[in-house]
Write a structure and sequence with these properties.
alpha+beta, 2 domains, four-stranded antiparallel beta sheet, three-stranded antiparallel beta sheet, 16% strand, elongated, Peptidase_S8/S53_dom_sf
């Protein structure tokens, strides 16, 4: 949340909130799932990332070795796949379909020539030969870049069913709140509502600016307090929007907030 400092009169809104829910959406962001399906030992420390040339028109799918061998005349890649028949290329980006990635790239404000569809992971057994594989791939004219990426060990958060649930679909504008959706479109608020510690318990939200419509239908019951200063009616559009994104009530009108349930302090 941006903090706005202004010359003149300002006010501070405080809202202690609790976001609760039982809808869980899990999005796969890398190719661990492909490793399991292909029977490959999972490498938890390193990944070999390969960026193919844009001139190489490959389908964005897992296991493109046959296409590389049949549709290219690159002796480096041909010899590489012959020397290491156990390796396979899998997609780096798996959370959305290739068609959705293309659509996002077209809509990007500064459309660049590099496409996410050129990035793959070279899946290989954990046998200490990663640097050798990287060096060999660098010799191919069809590969723009290849590098080793050290993977972070991510601890999966505990997800549990909470006693009080949200009903986001009861809010008429919920399906238009793209920022609540899973990545790459939003922050995946429904998932956070079901994560232990992700409900905003004991967290205080402060909006430092001025201009709120506190009797708005989605804010009037949310126990929002004016801490200092005074409210300026001429600027209610921005302040009300900020509070609405975070704190809109889970009711049957308007939006639902990122953290719509909170303590009534």
């Amino acid at each position: 949340m941006k903090m706005f400092q202004r010359i003149g009169v300002s006010a501070v809104i405080v809202s202690t909130f609790l976001g609760i829910g039982d809808n869980v959406n899990i999005v796969t962001a890398d190719s661990i799932e492909q490793q399991s399906k292909l029977g490959i030992e999972q490498e938890t420390d390193k990944q070999i990332i390969v960026k193919f040339s844009a001139d190489l028109k490959l389908p964005y799918e897992d296991g493109i070795e046959k296409q590389i061998q049949s549709e290219t005349n690159d002796k480096v890649l041909e010899d590489f796949l012959g020397e290491y028949p156990d390796v396979t290329f899998t997609r780096l980006f798996t959370s959305v379909s290739p068609e959705e990635i293309q659509d996002l790239e077209v809509k990007a404000p500064n459309n660049v020539s590099t496409s996410l569809l050129n990035y793959y992971i070279l899946q290989t057994k954990n046998d200490g030969r990663e640097e050798t594989l990287v060096d060999k791939l660098k010799a191919s004219s069809l590969i723009e870049d290849v590098y080793m990426k050290k993977q972070e060990k991510i601890i999966t958060p505990e997800v549990k069913q909470l006693s009080v649930s949200l009903n986001p679909n009861n809010n008429p504008r919920f399906n238009k709140q793209g920022y609540l959706e899973a990545a790459p479109y939003g922050i995946n608020a429904p998932f956070a509502w079901g994560v232990q510690g992700g409900n905003g318990n004991d967290v205080t939200f402060v909006d430092m600016e001025y201009g709120w419509l506190l009797n708005h239908e989605d804010l009037v019951h949310q126990n929002i307090e004016l801490m200092s200063g005074r409210n300026i009616d001429q600027h209610v559009g921005h302040g009300t929007s900020v509070l609405g994104i975070v704190s809109s009530e889970d009711n049957e009108v308007g939006n639902i907030g990122v953290a719509p349930h909170r303590y009534q302090a």
